[in-house]
Amino acid sequence: MYTKPDVLPVQVTLNGFDYSNDNITFGFYDPYVIDAQPRLIAVDGSTRVTVKGLGFVNSGETKVKYDDPAFPLKCTDESNCIRRADFIDKNHIIADTLPQNEVTYASDGKSVMWDPFYIEASVYNDDFTDNRVALYYYENPTFDSY
Fold first, then answer.
1. Given this model, what pLDDT does residue 75 score?
2. Residues 6 or more apart in contact with residue 134 via CB below 8 angstroms
3. What is the rounded distance in angstroms from the CA atom of residue 52 to the CA atom of residue 94?
4. Residue 91 lies in a domain
5. What is the CATH number of the domain that holds 50?
6. Range of the domain at 35
7. Mean per-residue pLDDT for 6-31?
8. Domain total in the chain
9. Cα 97-113-142 angle, rounded to 5 deg
């Protein structure tokens, strides 16, 4: 029994002795999001978020989704608030964020403003985690005078 997410080689035999060796792999996917850094993201969407967790694999389909299960979000670019993520290692992926003016509540079209929303991860298809790690938009401070 193998108890952790990973990609492993698969070999087949018909006689119990001679195994195939054609570099076929099979993935066991079960990611879990523990944290995201930073949790405060710029309103212009320029922040790159590092998602920390378990079970990330380099599947070629790694992505994140920004959403709120209680109050679903909608993004103006028709992406369903999903962004491609870069695989770093089995415990880290990195993804771009969305500009605040492109993220609204699906029910009424109002901006999320300063409300929390959540980042989830997927390494295969659209099977996203449900760990609810909260993110918040922030506006860079400006100085009017000194």
1. 94
2. 39, 116, 117, 118
3. 9
4. yes
5. 2.60.40.10
6. 30-138
7. 81
8. 1
9. 80
CB-CB neighbours of 145 under 10 Å:
3
Question: What pTM did the predictor assign?
Answer: 0.79
What letter represents residue 59's amino acid? Answer: S
Question: 36-61 burial, b for 16+ CB within 10 Å, e for fewer?
Answer: beeeebebebebebebbbebbbebeb
pLDDT bin (cut points 50, 70, 90) of residue 9 is confident
Q: Is residue 45 part of a domain?
A: yes
Query: Sign of the C-alpha dihedral, residues 63, 117, 37, 78?
Result: positive
Q: Give the C-alpha separation, 131 to 82, whole Å.
A: 16
Task: State the pLDDT at residue 38.
Answer: 97
